Amino acid sequence: MQILDGKLAAQAIKDGLKLEVAQLAANGKEVPHLVAILVGNNGASETYVAAKVKACEEVGFKSTLIRFEASISAFKLLDTIRDLNGDPEVDGILVQLPLPDHISAEEVINCIDPAKDVDGFHPSTVGKLVLGQPTYIPATPYGIMLLLEYYKIETKGKHAVVIGRSNIVGRPMSVLLSGSGNYGNATVTICHSHTKNLKEICATADIIVAALGRPGFVKEDMVKEGAVIIDVGITRIDDSSKKSGYRLSGDVDFAAVAPKASFITPVPGGVGPMTIAALMKNTFKACALKHYDGFLIQN
Ligand code: NAD
Q: Is this prediction's pTM over 0.90?
């Protein structure tokens, strides 16, 4: 069994970006600028946004964090996004989800200029992804594809089971794995809360992507010998022995499943860091499309 080390792979991606940004800056080119909007003070969201801002600093991007109280009106939030859409100094915009109940995430996502949609959630972005056209790939599935690429994990002709059908993880993941691009060409089964015989389906999988948000859901008897296991889940579990008061749990029973797997991602340190690295790549791409003449977009 080999650990798929997301920290290592993410660092390699960030190091590459840092070098490119430094060279471009030295030649007088624009440096990518990401704007993150955080509404309210959800603990997990605070952590994710802080990690994104820190990654920007690491690779040499500009970043701006706009914070709003949870009580902000939808009108004010949408107005801010429209201003950022029109701001030539801004390359990428992300609004950290979830949003308070009185604000429609759909309305907010739809308001972001697709050219700055580095989270890859806008309907036009998703449509292009499904059609196999160049676009921004949502950061978590993109990060997983980059991890498969980093470890050269064969997906062609394999049976991949994706558990979870959310718009930000499960569904785009199934599109990428079943697509004809690199690290695609798998036969994909997408499972969700109404799937019958989930255990039997998983047991036939060469690759399992668990993205349901149920700690330790994937057990040893659901996994085929030699399967590749990608654990997307991150759930905070109260733990008074930790300084933070919680520990993170993935959707896979790691201790029981790891001995059977050929490759497995840990939580933390697997998909999480790759998500951030993928966001950095999308932000770089947004800037490159706008400012870097003759720059070859590889993804
Ligand atoms: P979501 O709640 O939007 O979707 C969960 C999906 O799981 C749904 O499609 C649902 O049908 C399915 N599901 C729920 N219970 C099920 C069951 N018993 N059997 C089969 N399917 C079931 O969640 P999400 O936003 O896709 O996130 C999933 C997990 O991934 C969460 O733990 C989240 O925190 C984590 N996540 C991690 C990253 C990262 O960077 N590592 C990024 C995004 C989400």
A: yes
With residue 46 as reference, give the H or E element that holds it: helix 43-59
Cβ of 139 below 6 Å from ligand 1: no
φ and ψ of 93, to 5 deg: -125, 130
- Judged by phi (left if over 0) then psi (alpha if -120 to 50, else beta), residue 185 lies in left
pLDDT tens digits, 196-217? 999 999 999 999 999 999 999 9
- Domain 27-113 is in which class? alpha beta
Interatomic CA distance for residues 115 and 97, integer angstroms? 20
Annotation marks residue 62 as catalytic: no
Known catalytic membership, residue 23:
no
Nearest-angstrom CA–CA distance, 81 and 58: 25
Q: Which of 264, 267, 231, 266 is nearest to 249 (CA)?
A: 267
Q: What is the pLDDT of residues 61-78, one digit of tens each?
A: 999 999 999 999 999 999
Contacts of 164 (CB under 8 A, 6+ apart): 170, 191, 192, 209, 210, 211, 212, 213, 232
3-state DSSP of 160-187: EEEECCCCCCHHHHHHHHHCCCCCCCCE
**pLDDT tens per residue across span 112-125:** 999 999 999 999 99
Check for a shared fold between 27-113 and 139-271.
yes
Q: For residues 98 and 157, what is the distance between their CA atoms, to the nearest angstrom? A: 36
Among candidate residues 96, 206, 281, 285, the one labeled active-site is 96
CATH superfamily placement of domain 139-271: NAD(P)-binding Rossmann-like Domain (3.40.50.720)
Closest CA to 142 of 161, 64, 134: 134
Q: Kindly list the domain boundaries of the chain, sorted by start residue.
A: 27-113, 139-271
191 lines ligand 1 (CB under 6 A): yes
